[in-house]
Design brief:
By secondary structure, the protein is of the alpha/beta class. The protein has eleven helices and six strands. The protein folds into two domains: 162 residues, Rossmann fold; 34 residues, no CATH class. The strands form two sheets. A four-stranded parallel sheet has the order 4-5-3-6. A hairpin with a 5-residue loop joins strand 1 and strand 2. The longest helix is centred in the last third of the chain and has 16 residues. The chain is globular. This is FANCJ protein. It holds the Pfam family DEAD_2.
Length: 236
Amino acid sequence: APCTDCSCSSGKETDKDTNNTKKKDNGDRSFIPKIFFGTRTHKQISQITRELKRTAYSGVPMTILSSRDFTCIHPVVSSSGSSRNEMCVELLEGKHGKSCLYYHGIHKLSEHHALQSAHRTYQAWDIEDLVSLGKKLRACAYFAARELMLGADIVFCPYNYLLDPQIRESMEINLKGQVVILDEAHNIEDCARESVSYSVTESQLRAAREELDFMVNNNIRQKDHEPLRAVCCSLT
């Protein structure tokens, strides 16, 4: 049976604000932590959410954080390969006089889940479910998933969303006082190593050295560029 401390016990979603707090009878606020569930791959998230759907906690508010590679539904951006992030940002900033109509429709997805919860038909979902619904409602699944994080009790995401400080900042993830579960945690060491590693070819190093030579020879911020040139020379 469901526990008595979370929103699933009452049969309806507990009122929440953006700080994930709940008012007590005496007017005070008690902090309710979120559960951040990190996995190695997106496929494992699908397996976890499928199991969650079979439990008494299927109706608990949740979301899945993932990259644009899995959630972008814009016909041009989603087919652009490695430049999805850049094209998405350009559309959001309106650089070329165009904007993303899917981004302006993210409230449709949020309202859909709110209605499901109100009618007690809310169930755990997968990325594919959100993307499919996003296409139907013409709403961005990527940003909708981030917006749903505000009211979610459980947040599923890959390891690097929890380990990489830059991703945490960009996704507005604050782990202080929260519950963090790492599935197959023995993979954390490799994931942490990958997050601070970078692969570079010899030709890229030589090209960088040539550019830095030009900078130094033309007295362009020599103090900054000379040490960088020395690093390229030592590596090559």
